[in-house]
Amino acid sequence: MSAIIDSSVETIGENAYRRMRSDIIFGRARPGQKLRLDRLRETYGASVSTLREILNRLASEGLVVAEGQRGFEVSPVSVENLREIAALRLLLESHALKESFAVGDMEWEGRVVAAHHKLASMERLMESGERSHTEDWKRYDWEFHQALISACGSAALMETHAAIFDKYLRYQMIALSFRGDVAAREHQLLRDCALKRDADAAARVLADHVNGGVDHALATGTIS
Q1: Domain region containing 24
Q2: Which residues contact 54 (CB under 8 A, 6 or more apart)?
Q3: Which helix (H) or strand (E) holds 72?
Q4: Distance of CA 207 to CAs 92, 95, 193, Å?
Q5: What is the pLDDT of residues 73-105, one digit of tens each?
């Protein structure tokens, strides 16, 4: 009986964690927003003790800031932090691309092509002015970049890259940064580089892609 109860509590906690983390990354919980336990309990349906564990977990990921006796708040944003995150993403992803391109097989190629197809379809929808699928667009973006490095052979590298990518994505969502056809062309070039196993060209495209995303997000004026 106790094992069933423990399992239920864990499921509720994991569900609340995923939802809260998603709300932060996709900008529904704004930078600097106070995270009050009574409101969180109503929103996520978890106990106060479980919520404290979740908030500490998110704090260790850099998505939440502990304020001592005053509780927690969503981590603030800054130009400097965005540039640091972008530089780290570029470092990790460039290395992972090189490793993945060197050993990727037909299955890997299939994942890359399939992920790009979904992303390109969503980008065309976004370019048409349909912005109700913004979160789907960024999920497909994440899936495509993860597919590109999925043959790198290092689970730790994949996990670290995913965490950094999420922080970079958060800035894009806060700035509502969509570069349209420019980013779509860069994604297509990355796909083509993968199929040709041209890691050097891919690294150059990726640098333009990440740095261009930073410049575009900052140009919106929503990050200070």
Answers
A1: 2-74
A2: 13, 16, 17, 20, 46
A3: strand 72-74
A4: 12, 12, 14
A5: 999 999 999 999 999 999 999 999 999 999 999
Q: Is 153 left (phi over 0), alpha (psi -120 to 50) or beta?
A: left
Q: Of the residues 46, 74, 102, which one is the last residue of a structural domain?
A: 74
The verdict on 115 and 30 lying in the same domain is no
Tally of structural domains, the chain: 2
Domain end, chosen from 74, 94, 114, is at 74
List the CATH number of the domain containing 127. Answer: 1.20.120.530
Sign of the C-alpha dihedral, residues 26, 156, 44, 81? Answer: negative
Q: Which residues pair with 35 in a beta bridge?
A: 72
Q: Provide the whole-model pTM.
A: 0.87
| 74 secondary structure, DSSP code | E
Please state the length of the chain.
Answer: 224
Question: Which residue has tokens 């806060």?
Answer: 174
